[in-house]
Amino acid sequence: MSLLFTPIILLGGLLFMIPASLLSLYQRFSWTKGEKLRMKAQLTKSSTIEQWTYWTEMNSIKLYQNLEGEIRFGPGYFSVKSEPLLHDFDGKTFGGWFFHYKDGIFLQQWDSTKSPHSSLLYFDTVGLTIIELKTQVPSVIWEMEVLEENQLQLNCDTGYKILELRIELGTRD
After folding, report:
1. Would 72 be classed as within a structural domain?
2. Which domain, by its residues, includes 100?
């Protein structure tokens, strides 16, 4: 019984595919060069526009992030810009981790997207300065805990062990 329907189904598929193929060929050859360029621009437009999204805010300073890419089975990495605009963020790559403390924000700057080395930055939102506190931290999975006033500990998971890095912030005069 199913052998009887096989030629009918095959014929029905061909009757559908032949007109669809002819229509596609007609469109391909009848479009002008300008229409082809417009269509190509429309198709690539959505992937090339920078998509800045709100990330965090402190003391009227807003930070926005734009996804640059992501590590396979790992975290994403971003470009960052501020409002008002500060050029200290230009050309740098950041991880998605941040930590608010007093009048500033701790940020994770990636040194490379090939290896898990990053730097700990402190963005002073009052003085509008960025201070590099630690470099070549061999991890991008971080947690911060406050130990005492101006004393913090950065816990970094390397996949093999947890590194505990002490951070001491100076006092503002």
Report:
1. yes
2. 53-140
